[in-house]
Amino acid sequence: MCLAVPGRVESVREGEGGLRFGAVRFGTVVRDVCLEYVPDARAGDWVIVHVGFAIQRLDEGAAKETLALLEEAVASGEGA
After folding, report:
1. What is the rounded CA–CA span in Å between residue 24 and residue 49?
2. pLDDT at position 1, please?
3. CB distance 25 to 33 below 8 Å
4. pTM of this structure
5. How confident is the model at residue 54 (pLDDT cuts 50, 70, 90)?
6. 11-47 residue pLDDT tens
7. Which residue, 12, 68, 79, 10, is CA-closest to 40?
8. What burial class does residue 23 get, using C-beta atoms within 10 Å of its C-beta: 0-12 exposed, 13-18 middle, 19+ buried?
9. Of 2, 12, 9, nearest in space to 63 by CA
10. What domains appear along the chain, each with residue ranges and CATH number?
């Protein structure tokens, strides 16, 4: 099973070879994520991230709903 997780773009920068990267926040953790698949992503946007790549933008409501479902799954033991 694959898992993609919503995160909020904190900042955007150009990386090696001209690729776009962003600092993306997942709760208290910030990770460097490739933004090439979502070229319109900007700081403040929510994105779905899978294995270090942002694969889709989404609105804040959808992001928070997904995060709540993930928290519920972990709390119930389904995420273990």
Report:
1. 9
2. 59
3. no
4. 0.84
5. very high
6. 999 988 999 999 999 989 999 999 999 999 999 999 9
7. 12
8. middle
9. 9
10. 5-75 (2.30.30.140)
The residue among 51, 3, 49 whose CA lies nearest residue 25 is: 49
Question: Which tokens go with 11?
Answer: 């900042």
Alpha helix segments (H runs only) across the chain: 60-75
Supply 66's token pair: 């997904």
Q: Which amino acid is at 60?
A: E
pLDDT number for residue 13 = 96
Token pair, residue 70, equals 């993930």
Closest-CA residue to 42 (of 77, 12, 78): 12
Is the C-alpha dihedral spanning 12, 13, 16, 19 positive or negative?
A: positive
